Amino acid sequence: MVSEISFTTNDFLAVSGELTLAFSIVFLILWDIFSKTKNRLTFAVVTGLLIFLSAAVSILNSDVGHYFSNTFKVDGVSDFIKLFSAVVGILAIWLSLPRFQYHGEYYILLASVIFGIFIVASSADFIVLILGLETVSIPSYVLAGYFRTDRKSGEAALKYVLYGAVSVGIMLFGFSLIYGLTGETTFTAIKQSLTNLSKENHLLMLVSMILMMAGFGYKIASVPFHFWCPDVYEGAPTPMTAFFSVAPKAAGFIALSRFLIDAVPENDWITYNWQELFWWISVATMTLGNLAALPQTNLKRLLAYSSIAQAGYIFTVFTVNTQESYTALSFYLIAYLFMNLGAFAVVDWIERQTGKVTLEQYKGYGKKNPFVAVLFSIFLFSLAGLPPLAGFIGKFLIFKALLDGNQLVLAVISVINTVISLVYYVKIIREMFLTEEPHQEIEEEKTELSLKWFLIVCTLPTIVFGIAFNPAINFLETAVQSFFNTTSQF
Amino acid sequence: MGVLTIITFFPLVGALVLLFIPKEQKNFIRWLTAATTFIPFLLATWLIFQYDGTKIGVNDPNSFQFVERYNWINAFNIQYYVGVDGISFPMLWLTTLLSFLCIFASWNIEKSVKGYMMLFLLLETGMVGTFIALDFFLFYVFWEIMLLPMYFLIGIWGGPRRIYAAIKFFLYTLAGSVLMLLVMIVLYQNVIDPKTGKHTFDMVLMMNQANHSEWLVKSGTFWGYGIRYVLWFALFIGFAIKVPIFPFHTWLPDAHVEAPTAISVILAGILLKMGTYGLLRINYAIFPDTSNYFCQFLAILGVINILYGAFCAMAQKDLKKLVAYSSISHMGYVLLGMSSLTVAGINGGVLQMFSHGVITAMLFLLVGVVYDRAHHREIQGFGGIGAVVPIYMGMTAIAFFASLGLPGMSGFIAEVLVFLGSYQTWPVYTMIAVFGIIITAAYLLWTIQRIFFGPLNEKYKDLPEINGRELFTLIPLAAITILVGVYPHPVLNIISGSLNHLIEVVKNPLISVATYGF
Q1: DSSP B319-380
Q2: B393 within 8 A of B353, measured Cβ to Cβ
Q3: Residue B318: how many other CB atoms lie within 10 Å
């Protein structure tokens, strides 16, 4: 119940990172308009630096707590997601350089998406959350359709917009039901008010929860809100696909986590139904993702379905909803970031070389360019969850969280899915190393220096987090602790 | 850094060094790899003389030997904890020996030698690590590390159906090992280190059932079944796929037939033993009560393996497939011996693991020799070549006779011990299993007859004799077979202390099956 609105300097310090990024975007727009030179290399580098600066500023000013009348929350996980999205953004810019050297607005849009993720990461209020999610979505629509003349790109953008509009609409409807029940929009207030929810309103609560899942599910690309995903991933420029497959998903996961922890009361009936709902969604998401990925021959579609399946594994943690499970989620996101971006970087490189993204292009690639092929295999094996790579540790942590939360059946389903997923990851590796075209003269391909370093930058964490993951775990555990512990200022 | 760590990671370092050697220098790469695998072999051989047979190991943390223990991941109490006892030490030594010999068996591989050797060295690290790991997490990591190089070694350098065989091997093994992953996590949650009060992955602590939680001992159920049965079974499937125990064996003939010679040797000589090693180290020691309960089940599977493998081998036209099925048959003896829960039986079983590792390695090497010359492996396609290649025939005869259990060879000692032991516990099964020996003798002798005797197939009248390099790989193995066959004492000395203790543990488990049930 906010009677009098008054903001202090603390409030503005808490959003200093967001403010920095907002001003940076304005500055970049002006620079783009008034600059005479066509080449945007410096521009892109400066964009990356500004994104990084914003993340750094927000981490430096991170006094855990609620701000702006409890609508904005800063804690370890929000800092983590800001840093995370900044890293994804910078890597995506790096990946985009060869294609979009002359497009200033491209980088501005990218920075805007990251700005939206910053907001989502800290939002503790429905209205702020919706604003954040829309700030993520709208530039994403433009980015997905960035190749205006390409029909597929156009289709991708349209699908993205339509699905986005509908699912956010449904989500808002769900919010409105909760608002009707409680008369509140901030998460903490909702939680208080819901704690004493009367029995006859339980069903309404359940309906609103299901409706809200539409919005979260759309961002995460979980079944049954995943239909946009393969088409958008296929049509969007590959660097953007790489970006979409990681950053907005992370934002969706964090928004859902915060909603669950801050706004849902410890009510047995509600918890039970949530868990039931999440159980089915996660099983459907990973199984459908994996089965649909099996027959794909278009690498971008294959990785799209693979990312749906990966989201399914991550989604399982919500059935447990413990500190441990959120640590697992955060770690999985880190692992997923590097292995997925690495994989997409290779797909992008081959697309730029051959103009195609079908499995055909990978035949005998192990001979043609062993360096890229070997690193690509490392990313794929990590995605499949084989030790000693980061993807394995991510799965290990998730399974462990599941078993700690007595979700034995779900854990068994997840490991069966892991085995299925291996089939299509290995399919790519098979094309690269095992099948050869005896009649075709294979000449060695020269790797771009920038790509080489990009792949190395992605490989090192993929291996290091698979062997020495202790520091990462300790860091995330502290972050998640503050995620759970902060109480609102009433 | 201790000697076990050096043995494990020396090949990996070698693989990294190979990375910087230009791939055109094939011979240099070969020699360097041979040298890299020779050092671990030397060290392992040196360890034989340091090994103290009176220290039993198994579930006693103080009597493991050459132990190294460092904290690895503090957040979950994961340790780098390695050490050997009588169960693992012979396998460790065999691994280093076969790895070294297999480099020479791979000498005539021409296709991307560098990649082959690097993968091979990575494989050796995985194999050695699996045998010495005493921390479950470490064990699992090594166990999985073996998969990747194996997939590529079969898939790139294999025969015509290599792609199918490689993925089949990969999927089967992975399906088994993910079950193991879940069991590992459940064990972690339910085993507490009494000293620190924290959960632990330490296998030796897991083997003390007093550290198991109430849930794990008594109250736990999964879909109405007692949790110990479920966990035991999940582990069993993981290891059964590796052994392979009928009906999980179908990957084996494919993988063996398609793999290049050296890789078949490693597959049959080492990887199959990991299945039975895992059963002994993990199923038997961590769940002695459940293993005791299921030992009849193991005995029946052992008999099925012996007979089924032998009959299948008899029907084969392809020489390599015959050897592959004979492996299934021979691993059945290990199971039968293990399941008898007698001193003789289990000693025989583990001796059989060692002896079969040596003998089957010889068999696959010999198949490789003839395949390199004739470019086919059809048993019927030869005939009468005994007169053309007498030395080759001699070596083959040694290997075949060892395999069928001729007295004076290691296979005989192992099988006699197995039957002596298993007859005490399972007289009927043993009597059925003995027929396996006859069938084995039948198919091996029949094969010798078809290949070496009879009228000479004119196509092979100029078949080149076995060369020095090939003999170099075979003679040490033949010598070991005969040595162990005549004087098995050194091997039994190493294994018996640990195994006798393990048998006591399984026979008199701390907790009884009666406290929980289906």
Answers
A1: HHHHHHHHHHHHHHHHHHHHHTTSHHHHHHHHHHHHHHHHHHHHHHHHHHHHHHHHS--BGG
A2: no
A3: 15
What is the 3-class SS of B151-199, one letter each residue? HHHHHHHCCCCHHHHHHHHHHHHHHHHHHHHHHHHHHHHHEECCCCCCE
Reduced to 3 states, what is the DSSP secondary structure of residue B306?
helix
The burial class, CB within 10 Å (0-12 / 13-18 / 19+), for A367 is middle
Chain Cα centroid distance, residue A425? 20
In the three-class reduction of DSSP (H, G, I as helix; E, B as strand; rest coil), residue B72 is classed as strand
CA A336 and chain centroid, separation: 9
The mean of the pLDDT values for chain A is: 88
Take residue B356 and report the two structure tokens written for it: 């079969």
DSSP lists the bridge partners of residue A123 as A72
For residues A76 and A65, is the Cβ–Cβ distance under 8 A? no
CA separation for the pair B37, B14 (Å, rounded): 9
User: Would an 8 Å CB–CB cutoff place A473 in contact with chain B?
Assistant: yes
Angle at B85 between CA B84 and CA B89, to 5 degrees: 70
Interface touch A387/B222, C-beta < 8 Å: no
Q: Using CA atoms, how far apart are residues B411 and A424, in angstroms rounded to an integer?
A: 43
B163: nearest CB among A408, A422, A430: A430
**What would the pLDDT profile of A301-341 be if each residue is shown by its tens digit?**
999 999 999 999 999 999 988 888 999 999 999 999 999 99
Its pTM stands at: 0.93
The count of other CB atoms within 10 Å of the CB of residue A215 is 27
- 8 A C-beta contact, residue A424 and residue A296: yes
Would you call B302 helix, strand, or coil by DSSP? helix
| Structural tokens at position A80 | 């983590």
Which residues in chain A touch residue B166, judged by CB atoms under 8 angstroms apart? 434
Nearest partner of B452 among B358, B382, B372, judged by Cα: B382
Interchain pair A412, B144: CB under 8 A: no
For residue A455, pLDDT beyond 90 = yes
pLDDT > 90 in chain B, percent: 44
- What amino acid occupies position B514? A
Contacts (Cβ under 8 Å, ≥6 apart) of A322: A401, A404, A405
What are the residues facing B490 on neighbouring strands?
A: none
Q: Minimal Cα–Cα distance from B378 to chain A, Å?
A: 26
Q: Is the pLDDT of residue B514 over 80?
A: no
pLDDT at B140 over 90: yes
- Report the run of H or E that residue B398 belongs to, with start and end: helix B390-403
Which residues have a Cβ under 8 Å from the Cβ of B199 and sit 6 or more positions away? B76, B77, B188, B189, B191, B192, B193
Q: What ipTM was assigned to the predicted interfaces of this complex?
A: 0.90
Q: Write down the domain spans for chain B.
A: 299-486
Q: Which among B357, B388, B355, B389 has a CA at the least distance from the CA of B486?
A: B355
Closest chain A C-alpha to B456 CA, distance in angstroms: 37
Please state the domain extents for chain A.
266-485
The answer to whether A415 contacts B181, with C-beta atoms less than 8 Å apart, is: yes
Residues sharing a CB contact under 8 Å with residue B473, sequence separation 6 or more, in sequence order: B101, B102, B104, B105, B365
Indicate the Cα dihedral angle A149, A151, A154, A155, nearest 10°: 180
Q: Which residue has the tokens 């289906």?
A: B518
- Exposure pattern of B229-257 as b/e (b: 16+ CB <10 Å)? bbbbbbbbbbbbbbbbbbebbebbbbbbb
Phi/psi of residue B318, nearest 5 degrees: -90, 125
Question: If you ran DSSP here, which 8-state letter would residue A446 be given?
Answer: P
Closest C-alpha to B472, from B378, B362, B316? B362
**What is the pLDDT, as a whole number, of residue B149?**
92
Mean pLDDT of chain B: 89
Cα dihedral B220, B221, B225, B230 sign: negative
Closest by CA position to A340, among listed A415, A248, A432: A248
The pair of structure tokens assigned to A315 is 């989604």
Amino acid at B119: L
